[in-house]
Each structure stands twice: as structure tokens, then as C-alpha cells.
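anyone seen this seq b4? input:
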Amino acid sequence: MESISENTLPVGKPKWLKVKLPIGQKYTELRGLVDNYKLNTICASGSCPNMGECWGEGTATFMILGNICTRSCGFCGVKTGRPETVDWDEPEKVARSIKIMKIKHAVITSVDRDDLKDMGSIIWLETVQAIRRMNPNTTLETLIPDFQGNTRNIDRIVEANPEVVSHNMETVRRLTREVRIQAKYDKSLEVLRYLKEKGIRRTKSGIMLGLGETEVEVIETMQDIRNQNVDIITIGQYLQPSKKHLPVKEYITPEQFEKYEKIGKEMGFRHVESGALVRSSYHAEKHIL
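predicted toks r here
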């Protein structure tokens, strides 16, 4: 999968990237709840292409610690800048909304909060604990930042003990500095390894394609992730959130995604989600099995 230049990109998106508009009563209900409680979902903030499908089925990914990130990754649609003050009532708000929505499996993620001494890990712990108290039958996935590799902060996630803990590599080693800017490839691998060593039952990571990586690099990254005993991997197509973000260098074909799925299964991943519209929390409810 050699990357191709921007000048040779087809005009418009290929047919396999057509996204259905979010419709339906359930979607409308969830939209109202999110707006009413002023909750931040990565579905909306990150312009996820699966928002209509997931919300229509009554599932959503909640983003805690505000909607302004301290990092400026070249791929991400979330705002970057100086975050607002931490809302210490947020854990109860999220837990209450999950109860109202009758969500059976919730995914929690957050912006990076490098401005905080604990990098937001205390709110992370309190959010999971609040959800557990109010929704004892709800299973959880936490999609966490790297916390700069600080094990004291990561230990709070371990203490919370969600069914799945996810941390995304996002891209291959060569492109990490350009794509993730403040993050480091090996530090993310260390986070994934540490989580497993500390007893997290299911660990997960994701990468996006179309930023100029080669097939060899993708397979190397998949193997690096698997070498940390990670159970689940998601592989999707990068879509440019705005003209200010990194351009799409290549649209990966469905056949190529199928090839990566096969390779991932041969590597020993328990679950492999590989497709153009796959995102971190896609089919998340299946990953606890």
C-alpha cells in the first residue's frame, strides 16, 4: 500500500465512504439529552462518521474534562487551546445521563489535560465510580490519553477497572511526530504494556490510515501493538476534519482493509475491526466478550 500524492487523489470521496445522515427517533432523543445536560460526546466533537448509526442504536461515547484539548494533533477535530476549569460535577452528570439513556455499554474518553497536575486522572476515576454506582449493570470501556506515561495517573484507571481500556497509537512510527505532535510512539506502547501488566483484562488500540503510511509500516505497527499483549485493534480511514488539518494522502480500499483484518487475526488479536468508517468505539459492545 504505497501512498499516493495529493495530485493523484480522486475528486470527492470514494463510494465506500458515503455516510448516512443521522435520523430517527432514538437519535433525536439522545441529541436532546446531550444538549440538555451540556455533555461532550466525541461523536459530535470529533465529527465521527458513525454518529447516526451508533446514536440510532442508542449508544454513545462520552468525552469528559471539557471539549478543549491541550494538544494540537494534526488529525483531530476537537478544539485545542486553554481548557476551562474542571467540572467536578461531571462524573455524576455522565452517570445520570447513562441511566436516563438506558445504555448497556458506555465508552468514556477525554481530551488531553496536560495543564492539570493529575492530567485529569482523578476525574477519570470518579467518573467510572459514579457510573458503577448508578448503573451497576452497565459495562465500560475507557479510551484514555497517555497521561504522559505517568504511572501514578494510569494506576487510577487500573483502580477503576473498566471492562476494556483503550489507548490509540493513531499512526505508524514514522508519521507520529507529524500526526500526534506532542505524543511519542514508544510511550504509547509502554502505556499499553503497563495496563496489561497491571491486570487489565481487555486492552485495545487503534490506528487510522491514509496519511502516507505504507503497508509494511501498518503491519509493523500492528505487530508492535500485538507485542504488548493487546487484545483488540481498530483500523479505519483518516478523514480530514477541516482544511486546517492534515490532508488525506490516500483512500484505502475495502479489499485492503479486509487484508489487514486477516493479518490482525493471524497475529492473535481477539477482535479486529478494519474498515473505512471504523472508529475507536465502533462495535465497542462486542469487545468485552
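The radius of gyration is 18 Å. DSSP finds ten helices and ten strands in the chain. kinda curious what u guys think
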